[in-house]
Amino acid sequence: MSVIQSEALEADQVELDAITELGEQLISSVLAEESVDTVTQLVKSGAPLWYQTNSEGISCLHAAAYVQNAELVKLFIEGGAIWSASDYLGNTAGDIALSFNNEEIYTIIRDAGLREELVRALLSSHGMADAESTMTLRLEDDDTAATSTETFLASKLRFTVDEHGQEICMLKDVDGDEIGVMMGWERGIMQETVAKLADARRSTNGLKILNIGFGLGLIDTLIQGLSPVHHVIVEAHPDVLKHMKEQGWYEKPGVTILEGKWQDFINSEKIQTIVPDGAFDIVYTDPFSEDYAALRQLFGHLQVLLGPQGKFSFFNGLGATNATIYDVYSRVAEVHLADAGFDVTWYDVDVRDSAGDRWGSSRKYFTCPTYRLPVVCRTIDE
């Protein structure tokens, strides 16, 4: 290493140490409940709002939430503090506000997240790839088979039964970790979903239903209980298709299976040949590994896919490993559905893990105690 390189490294270390010291000082000042003026001066002097302590992983925004100082929360948010940063316990500043039942601070943080994600989505829709959100339906911050559609479709799936007798479908990622594609504990969610989508329709004849993503067939089995005249299933994974054949789904009356991704059929005449008027009474989607951008793309086709009284829902796993992020991402979806001409009614489903071990060896993709079930219908002009 040359003398110049060595001096450059030393200079970088000095700068890093100075930033770290300012970051620690800022957080300590907030926790000590020093005056807003004192904290403001630290920010102006260059204290980093993104900094998180090595000991606990808390940021200045976490600290402001701990001392319940709404003025400082606003100051940090306006200065660019990261609303979604999690400490070492997995809590965001919004979660801390929730723990204190501080609605004012929680709303400030949540709304900041909503604004940021909406702007990010807008920039992404205009081709600015760097602005793409990390929102995924089941797992976050992952570019393996869990969140890459093409990698997922090329991966090997394993259908088995866990120690509780629940059927599960698993895949292995590049690190050898097993991930549940769908697990038996979701049955309650699917039961509530079908009940809300069908509501008073159960006594009517001739239901036309489209489901995207078969998984374990939990929701499709429940759909069969409605005796639909048309039950269209879109599934792309070869191992799932093989499993469906073994389970006799190809022979079920009224069932049509489209082998491929929904994008392969949505703009073709294939769906119209199955359902002549091209309109379904119920549309549901839960395609493992697709990101939010794909879900939003589907929103844009609902005006054609849904009949006048049709209802739509999707597996809402958007950021569901954290309560604040889950709330923000659910609201983002609501805004985008409104833009597409649809209203959303949310229903809470208690999914707390009473057994304590429903995940087994699988990586967790849903840890919130409450599942927010979306039921989507056309906006009615008053």
TrEMBL record:
Cross-referenced SMART domains: ANK
InterPro entries, sorted: Ankyrin_rpt, Ankyrin_rpt-contain_sf, RMT2/GAMT_Mtase, RMT2_dom, SAM-dependent_MTases_sf
Pfam family, one: Ank
BP GO terms, sorted: methylation
Record keywords, A-Z: ANK repeat, Methyltransferase, S-adenosyl-L-methionine, Transferase
GO cellular component, one term: cytoplasm
Molecular function terms, GO-annotated: protein arginine N5-methyltransferase activity
Keyword Transferase tagged: yes
Start and end residues of each RMT2 domain: 143-382
ANK repeats: 56-88
Superkingdom field: Eukaryota
Protein's name according to its UniProt entry: S-adenosyl-L-methionine-dependent methyltransferase
Species per Swiss-Prot/TrEMBL record: Favolaschia claudopus
